[in-house]
């Protein structure tokens, strides 16, 4: 059983990289060559929905009986504590304002920009600002159906929650690599983005398990992170990243200490518990 899950996960990860990188790698090469990368290309929709598409293909290829139905059935499971909704919706902005406040106290003055997404596109691409904001929910759903809807529950059947988070976070960071290059990230900012991605994957697992394996909570958390990034400019001191990684370390400790409280060893496939 564990062997079949590992094979299915390997197929999923390979498909995700193949589909998304087919779109993003040529764009990243253009950017590195000094040419404008078509960041507003409609093909980006295929790239960000690759995790969901890869999950469906992996289930079809491995002939997992009822797997696709169970995958999408998770989207019906919204009932959990109100505190989890408050956390996933407010945490990203709270970290940003905390980081900004700490920097001000330390004397690090810099200009912040609200509605920061407007700087990602050229003037003639202004319409993409509206498109990006409108598609925050559907685009993050495309990712979460694959990452937390399929891969995480599969990993939790064969590994502990922290190990599962680190594996998934590592693949997630590698998946993002050409997209980061496409947007001009390199050097230290690129490395920090990779570390942040692995760290936030640990927080995702904590939310997923703590809320009772609720995929919609992971989806809303991802949407909240994305929307906050669109609306608030990056913190140049990386103080927010330090807060995120510190929080992930605390959460990672909790996942190890309470690894059998939720999910691991008891959850059925794709987090659908009785």
Could you characterize what this model shows?
The protein is mostly helical. It has one domain. Helix content is 70%, strand content 0%. It is built from eleven helices and no strands. It has helices spanning 2-32, 43-48, 50-61, 67-73, 82-105, 127-134, 136-156, 161-182, 187-210, 215-231, 239-257. The longest helix is centred in the first third of the chain and has 31 residues, at 2-32.
Number of helices: 11
Query: Uncertain segments of ≥5 residues (pLDDT<50)?
Result: 263-268
Percent of residues in helices comes to 55-70%
Which oligomeric state applies? single chain
Determine the structural class based on helices, strands and strand pairing: mainly alpha
* Main beta sheet strand tally, sense and closure: none
The overall pLDDT average reads: 88
The dominant shape is globular
Question: Which band does the percent of strand residues land in?
Answer: under 5%
Secondary-structure element series: HHHHHHHHHHH
Radius of gyration: 19 Å
How many angstroms does the end-to-end distance come to? 21 Å
Task: Give the number of domains.
Answer: 1
Number of strands: 0
Write a brief structural summary.
The chain is built from eleven helices and no strands. The protein has 274 residues and is mostly helical. The protein has one domain.
What topology does this entry show?
Elements: H1 2-32, H2 43-48, H3 50-61, H4 67-73, H5 82-105, H6 127-134, H7 136-156, H8 161-182, H9 187-210, H10 215-231, H11 239-257
């Amino acid at each position: 059983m564990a062997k079949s899950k590992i094979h299915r996960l390997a197929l999923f990860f390979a498909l995700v990289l193949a589909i998304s990188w087919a779109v993003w790698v040529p764009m990243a090469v253009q950017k590195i060559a000094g040419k404008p990368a078509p960041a507003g290309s409609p093909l980006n929709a295929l790239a960000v929905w690759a995790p969901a598409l890869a999950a469906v293909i992996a289930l079809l290829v491995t002939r997992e009986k009822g797997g696709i139905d169970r995958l999408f059935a998770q989207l019906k499971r919204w009932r959990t504590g109100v505190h989890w909704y408050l956390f996933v919706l407010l945490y990203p902005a709270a970290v940003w304002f905390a980081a900004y406040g700490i920097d001000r106290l330390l004397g690090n003055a810099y200009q912040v920009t609200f509605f920061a997404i407007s700087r990602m596109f050229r003037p003639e691409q202004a319409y993409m600002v509206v498109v990006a904001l409108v598609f925050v929910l559907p685009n993050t759903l495309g990712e979460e159906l694959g990452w937390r809807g399929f891969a995480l529950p599969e990993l939790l059947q064969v590994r502990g929650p922290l190990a599962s988070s680190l594996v998934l976070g590592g693949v997630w960071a590698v998946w993002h690599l050409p997209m980061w290059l496409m947007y001009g990230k390199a050097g230290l900012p690129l490395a920090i983005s990779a570390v942040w991605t692995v760290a936030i994957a640990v927080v995702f697992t904590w939310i997923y398990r703590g809320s009772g394996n609720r995929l919609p909570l992971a989806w809303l958390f991802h949407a909240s992170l994305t929307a906050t990034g669109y609306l608030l400019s990056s913190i140049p001191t990386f103080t927010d990243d330090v807060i995120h990684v510190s929080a992930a370390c605390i959460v990672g400790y909790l996942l190890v200490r309470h690894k059998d409280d939720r999910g691991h060893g008891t959850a059925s496939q794709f987090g659908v518990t009785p």
